[in-house]
Automatic annotation (TrEMBL):
One of its GO terms (biological process) is L-phenylalanine biosynthetic process. One of its GO terms (molecular function) is prephenate dehydratase activity. It catalyses: prephenate + H(+) = 3-phenylpyruvate + CO2 + H2O. It is an enzyme of class 4 (lyase). The record marks T175 as: Essential for prephenate dehydratase activity. Residues 3-182 form the Prephenate dehydratase domain. Its EC number is 4.2.1.51. This is Prephenate dehydratase. The keyword Lipid metabolism does not apply. It comes from Haloechinothrix alba. Keywords: Amino-acid biosynthesis, Aromatic amino acid biosynthesis, Lyase, Phenylalanine biosynthesis. It holds the Pfam family PDT. SUPFAM superfamilies: ACT-like (SSF55021), Periplasmic binding protein-like II (SSF53850). GO terms for cellular component: cytoplasm.
Length: 306
């Protein structure tokens, strides 16, 4: 059976994303884990075939726990992604009136995305961070807190009344989720793909600029750039780089080789984009140019031309 670990517990946006990524596979089993690290470890140790985890939010930025886990331990690669609109439901404990709410619990990212709404509508409530939005709903069900900011599905899952729905400070807020597997056969290129790497550039002047120049020279458009500190090396950083295109394309493969020559690089996957945006290719940097150049070098090696 195809088993997908996900950042749980049940009733989170990640569960919703996992179900979306499972698609028509009705035999897929979704297995919740308490943390992102545990969900990814389940793939590494063979307990599940894949893991669904959040990677970035349009309001709060990168999910650092996911980035750090991708950079460390055994490699995992993204084979698919899901993009979900994020609107929350505020759930109250049974018998708790709106005016009596003194504590509101949720994941830190969720609290940040509804901060203004909470300040206006529940100005006296204390905000409490939990490991996930569903964990907050469960804590409300168990009487630990008065209210929770959670995914709409949590209302039914935990039997809690909603005092507000469609809550979001930013109306078009979205979160992107990855489906991670052990390295293996990659999805075929579609023309609407994303490739991801993490690069540990040297701590010297111009190191990051050199990496980005390799991509710009080949007409490759970035979709995300984040930095995370390297543990044990104060002032040293890894750079997480997402860009348009698929490793099967000559220009992308050529760029990855160029990045690898400059520093340590870990490949994090090539997969179709959830938003369906096609890669933009500069006329002077199309794949045909790299195919032609590679063919010429090969003919020189054979002694067929000069």
């Amino acid at each position: 059976m195809y088993r997908i670990a996900y950042f749980g517990p049940e009733g989170t946006f990640t569960e919703q994303a996992a179900r979306s990524l499972a698609g028509s596979d009705t035999h897929a089993e979704l297995v919740p884990y308490e943390t992102i690290a545990q969900a990814m470890a389940a793939v590494r140790d063979g307990g599940t075939s894949a893991a669904c985890v959040p990677v970035e939010n349009s309001v709060e930025g990168p999910v650092t726990a996911t980035l750090d886990e991708l950079a460390e331990d055994e490699p995992l690669v993204a084979t698919a992604e899901a993009l979900l609109p994020i609107h929350f439901t505020v759930l109250a404990g049974r018998g708790v009136r709106r005016e009596d709410i003194g504590t509101v619990a949720s994941h830190p990212h969720a609290l940040a995305q509804v901060r203004h709404w909470l300040d206006v509508n529940l100005p006296s409530a204390r905000h409490v961070a939990t490991s996930s939005t569903a964990a907050a709903a469960l804590a409300v069900q168990q009487g630990e807190y008065d209210a929770a900011v959670a995914a709409p599905v949590a209302a039914e899952r935990y039997g809690l009344p909603g005092i507000a729905t469609e809550v979001a400070d930013v109306e078009d807020a979205r979160t992107r989720f990855l489906l991670l597997t052990r390295p293996g056969t990659l999805p075929e290129p579609t023309g609407c793909d994303r490739t991801s790497v993490v690069a540990a550039a040297a701590n010297r002047t111009g190191a990051l600029s050199e990496l980005l120049t390799e991509l710009a020279f080949r007409g490759i458009n970035l979709t995300r750039l984040d930095a995370r500190p390297i543990k044990g090396g104060f002032g040293e950083y890894r750079f997480f780089i997402d860009f348009e295109g698929h490793v099967a394309e000559p220009r992308i493969g050529d760029a990855l080789a160029a990045l690898r020559r400059r520093c340590a690089v870990r490949f994090l996957g090539s997969h179709p984009r959830a938003d369906g945006v096609r890669a933009s290719i500069q006329p002077s940097a199309g794949n045909e140019d790299f195919v032609s150049a590679a063919d010429w070098v090969e003919s020189v090696r054979r002694g067929d031309t000069a």
